[in-house]
UniProtKB/TrEMBL annotation:
Transmembrane segments: none annotated. GO terms for molecular function: anti-sigma factor antagonist activity. Belongs to the anti-sigma-factor antagonist family. Signal peptide: none annotated. It comes from Streptomyces coryli. This is Anti-sigma factor antagonist. Residues 14-122 form the STAS domain. Pfam families: STAS (PF01740). The lineage of its organism: Bacteria, Bacillati, Actinomycetota, Actinomycetes, Kitasatosporales. NCBIfam families: ant_ant_sig.
């Protein structure tokens, strides 16, 4: 397993796509979100808020793993988005990822949706 630095072989373990959907940014991480890949998600989340898109919808449908570092990235994004008048909405979490949020109690501080469509209509 590659445990290199961000920018090395680790980059292939997490892909992040960002699309604008009205007043929201839809951020879609795919792969493993952990200590080695967290910066790959932190940067686009912070850039969205800096660009005035404070309503962040994180499409978790292809997020296969999330550890405490990944959770902290999302919590940090939530604070920045809320400070800018928005928030972070999590959509379509796979059970393995949802379990991390359940165990830590983090699901209570995010708006969680069953699907991306549900997150976008609110």
């Amino acid at each position: 397993m590659d445990r290199g630095l961000v920018g090395s072989g680790s980059r292939g373990r997490l892909r992040v796509d960002v699309q604008r959907h009205g007043a929201s940014a839809v951020v879609k991480p795919a792969g493993e979100l952990d200590y080695h890949t967290a910066e790959l998600l932190r940067q686009p989340l912070e850039q969205c808020v800096a660009d005035g898109l404070a309503r962040l919808v994180v499409d978790c449908s292809e997020l296969e793993f999330c550890d405490s570092t990944g959770l902290n990235v999302l919590l940090g994004a939530r604070l920045k988005a809320e400070a800018a008048g928005g928030g972070v909405h999590l959509a379509a979490m796979l059970p393995v990822v949802a379990r991390v949020f359940e165990i830590t109690g983090a699901e209570a501080v995010f708006t969680v949706h069953d699907s991306l469509d549900a997150a976008l209509i609110e």
